[in-house]
Amino acid sequence: MHWEEKYSKNFKEFFAKIITWNPDYIVPVARKACKLLKANKEQIELPTDTIFFRKYFEFCKPDISGKKIAIFDDSVNHGTTLYEHRTFFENLGAKVNCYAFVLRESSIKNNLFYGPKPIIGIPFSDQEYLEYLSCQEEFLVSQGDHLDIDHLVL
After folding, report:
1. 113-131: pLDDT as tens digits
2. Do residues 97 and 21 touch, judged by C-beta distance below 8 A?
3. Type and span of the H or E element at 102
4. DSSP class of residue 51?
């Protein structure tokens, strides 16, 4: 089944949760998260003037004390990257919510998850998680984005 048929509606609803929180900044944790936002820009309200990678905050050092930061990851396995991002922004005085469109349930059940649980779009079993990653890559490639070798699924 294609990503558009199986996950597009869920992604739109999930992203609405981020927008409803009214963040000052949306921080995608990886290139693939950005690609997913870009590929779905026709389906979601995408406030491009608020989307920045963590590197922007490291280099430009804007004052974000008291600002609302929504950290977005497209798929979460153990949560280490979300935790690192959360800690970085909280240490700068920001209010942080973490969002994971897809989360591998077994990481939490088997106590392999690192850090606070994010706001989740879809919790998946291990098999569903791998199927999703494969379907997502197919979708992104069909949208003109190259394969993300950081998350290669064979």
Report:
1. 777 888 888 888 888 888 8
2. yes
3. strand 95-104
4. B
